[in-house]
Request: fold
Amino acid sequence: MLRLLHVLVVAALVFAAADVYKIKFDSTLQAEKVAKLRAEVRRERDAIAALRATWSELGNPERLQGLARRHLPLKPIDTAQYDTLDRLPERPPEVVPPVEVDPIASLLGRDVDVTGSVQARGR
Amino acid sequence: MQPPTSRELVPVAAAPRRSLLHRLLYGRNIDRSAKARARVGLAIAAFAAVYAVIAVRLVTLAMVHDHGARRGIAQDAVATARPDIVDRNGEILATDVKAPSLFADARKIVDVDEAVELLSASLPDLDSLEARERLASKRGFVWLKREITPKQQIEVHRLGIPSLGFLDENKRVYPNGREVSHVIGHVNIDNQGIAGIERWLDTHGLAALHMAGLATDRLQKPVELALDLRVQHALRDELLQAHDKYKAKATAGIVTDVRTGEIVAMVSTPDYDPNNPREALDPTRINRLTTGVYEMGSTFKALTLAMALDSGKVNLNSTFDARMPLRFGKFDIHDFHAQNRVLNVPEIFTYSSNIGAARMALAVGIEQHKAFLRKMGQLTRLRTELPESAEPLVPKRWGELNTITIAFGHGLSVAPLQSVMAVGALVNGGHLIPPTFLKRSEEEARSLAVQVIKPETSDKMRYLMRLNAEKGTATKADVKGYYVGGKTGTSDKIVGGRYSKTKVLTTFMAIMPADKPRYLLLIMLDEPQATAETHGFTTSGWNAVPTAGKVIARIAPILGLEPRFDLPPADKLILAAAKEAR
Reply:
């Protein structure tokens, strides 16, 4: 009875030791990963900051103005070009769609394409 | 295994407690099996205690989990991090980027001459004399070159000189350079703010954070300014053009929101590049709006008229005699646009009559004049977030002559920002709001505001300002659709203790829209020259006013002002509307 207990306890001890070793190994691995990721995050953040600085340098209004003057035909907007929505005129009334068939052409009939430069068929 | 029961302990219970355990373990007359159990029990207790300690320690370690995280910081960021500065739309005005810096352990260097020679080949702007001296100093840590480029870092690394090392430092960059120089200020090589908002950041907690070594992270909240980069650019662009066109010594301009006191744009040319702070040392590049004090000239008449109207002694129909120059002692006060007749109050404003303004101030009284200007913040130093500020030059003895000259803006020098604050109060309904460079809501502004004049007086001032753009000296700034109003000012500069006839300072204060002002614009030109286009004039109406007109046409759409057309003239729109409302 007591012997069985001893064997069980020893087995449990060995198992516990193995388990603790595994946990420790894993945690070291994880800690290394965390440190690596943290360094990477910092590097990325620095890179983002550098890019953002470059971006706002490129978006500097003075630079854009120079580029726009050189390459675009646009001009500064004039107050006369503004208007409010309520001054927009009413929508024009529905227009009757134009007749599909050209009335003169139908009068002329088939000879419509005969002009001075286009010879009538059959001649 | 059973714990010792109370039955076995009964015979010894009478003995003192300390000896109970002792006797149980070692006593001769105790039963052997009881003794064994007691010993095993003791062993169990001891082990349990040890395991308890381990368990507690494990829990604490698990709770304080970033135990080792701080280790990396020491190698990083010697120059401490600063928060980004952004404008009101989130555009970056100042930010940190990492830049490597080169240092050396001078004790370990083998050959100083060779090292310096190799280094100066890859770092052309290295001061070789200083580097030699530093390397020969035998100190454990010397900087050789701060903030080098990554390419230079690789080159230096390839040289393979022992004892050299690199540290990543935060370097402050200003992507918009000159556009915002005077507002932002700049930092020194150790990333400490030494001017402008940067300095303000340091005095408001950042320096303490740096001392504690906590401000190393990039995750600090960005500081939001009231500035609008687009407006700032438009203002600066037009001012630079005016600078060249009128060959002025300096120009300055400011746009504020009269309802909140926010400074939306502030430019003073010549300016400097904060990325190259050495330029800032040049005294011609100072910020004229806060560090300079000027006699503001006729723009001050707005204050005089507001005081007179607010006192109740004068109304819009009051008349003042401007037929003759005003004689005081040996001084004669003349009018520039002399009408030589009796003028009413609106005429005094639009013709900018010195005589009329002086008579008006005298009618109110000297003490009241002084008290009014004090109330308007014109006699004390105005403090904003910017560390640079100037004390106004107030006459030590304030007599009748002082009141006469100050009534039309001579004899009292104030910082232009100060007068902007006062004129803002004249037109926004009478609330004096201290200007700020930081974002501020209308509620916050209202809680800071002091009522300095009656709302009715403010209505009258708006009317007068608008009238001036309709038929006074400010017609050239009347951009169609924005209902601009304003007051011009031209003051003679003092050269060698005398008022110069040729050197002038011209100013223009514009409000838009005049019926319900939202923005106030100040344009100031220092010593503008006459050109063919100005027909030989150097007064404000010929240089500051047209410049303001151009600025308004550009910034009003950015500021979200909607152009309105076919508005009635000032007396109908402002005065009549104000009367109806009451």
Notes: Chain B has a mean pLDDT of 85.
